[in-house]
């Protein structure tokens, strides 16, 4: 594999810059319902913010519900968190839960219900299917499938992670080194994803997101250095750099997973499923990118300058993210 693997992607980057710059603003809503006493539930409803206003979403149940405490709201930066207690006058299992207003958005909602007997249910609601029936329990396979989908979606819209992989592909010269570098990146972010999600190691999300953007700038700079004939650790041993920055990116993945919420009875399974989804999405991106470049090379010869142009495109976008996220950290 040659280093021209990013030419098609560079063009896409320029076209998709506005969407990429705001990609992390499209976050899912999250509804957590936990039975704390017979027929009494603690409710947490987190909805994404657009500027200073939250999305107009509300959680509705088909059965008779009595609100026990007032709804308490507080913002968390990019989301509004509302908490209250409710009493069900009919069994919650078997009721239909609806995220009203979801059909008018472009985001999803994760619903997590835990009963006092230990049974739990997790479902992903979408604008096309904003409601679902709450069962008494949920199979392990359903939990696994739900979090695999979330992992795939996170990497598909995680433009910063994809840009890092893209920059790595510009540095790597053949497919063997690419496999080694991607494997190192995968192993590293799997380690920190697991540790951070389980609460063993924690880092504040905004500085982590800023450092992820800076890591992309650094990789893009290494591509330019390589094209000038210079040598560095990233150029000679790309798998080492991939592993080091992979540890950082794992904290970013963990932040997304924590925001989604985890089913308390199936945390290891949900963690595994989310990681599998991330890897499937990452591999799909690499396959599509290489296939597109191969198709282009059958028609035209790709000039060497395209590699440098691709690196500059990646670096400019990452630098923009860095400034934007630094401003958020200190504001």
* Shape assignment: elongated
Total domain count: 2
Supply the helix-strand structural class: alpha+beta
The number of helices is 10
Low-confidence parts: 1-25
Please state roughly what percent of the residues sit in beta strands, choosing from under 5%, 5-15%, 15-25%, 25-35%, 35-45% or over 45%.
Answer: 15-25%
The portion of residues assigned to helices is: 40-55%
Q: Give the beta-strand count.
A: 11
Q: State the end-to-end CA separation.
A: 44 Å
Order of helices and strands: HHEEEEEEEEEEEHHHHHHHH
Rounded mean pLDDT is 83
How can the largest sheet be summarized?
Answer: 8 strands, mixed
Report Rg.
22 Å
Describe this protein with a few key phrases.
transmembrane, 19% strand, HupE/UreJ family protein, alpha+beta, eight-stranded mixed β-sheet, membrane, three-stranded antiparallel β-sheet, single chain, Put_HupE_UreJ, Immunoglobulin-like, disordered N terminus, 331 residues, 2 domains
Question: Can you tell me about this structure?
Answer:
By secondary structure, this protein is an alpha+beta fold. The chain has two domains: 3-24 and 157-330, no CATH class; 28-139, Immunoglobulin-like (Sandwich), CATH 2.60.40. 53% of the residues lie in helices and 19% in strands. It contains ten helices and eleven strands. It has helices at 7-15, 17-21, 140-156, 159-171, 175-197, 205-227, 233-236, 238-260, 267-297, 305-330; strands at 29-37, 40-50, 53-54, 58-61, 65-67, 72-75, 79-88, 96-100, 109-114, 120-125, 131-133. The strands form two sheets. Strands 1, 2, 3, 5, 6, 7, 9 and 10 form an eight-stranded mixed sheet that branches. It has a three-stranded antiparallel sheet with strand order 4-8-11, with no helix packed on it. Helix 3 packs across helix 9 (267-297), helix 4 (159-171) runs parallel beside helix 6 (205-227) and helix 4 (159-171) runs antiparallel to helix 10. The longest helix has 31 residues, at 267-297. It is elongated, with a radius of gyration of 22 Å. The termini are far apart. Residues 1-25 have low confidence and may be disordered.
